[in-house]
Amino acid sequence: MLNNYVLIFLILLFLFLRFFNLPLVVNYSADQGLILSGTYKIYKEKKITLIGPPSSLKGKTHHEFYYGPLPYYLLLPVVIFTKEPIFASYYLIFLNALGLFFLYHALLKRFNFKIAFLGGLFFSTYPSLVNYSRFVWNPIFYHYLPHYFSFTGPITCLIRLLYYCLV
Question: Which of 19, 120, 123, 149 could be disulfide-bonded to 10 (CB atoms 3.0-4.6 Å)?
Answer without folding.
Answer: 120
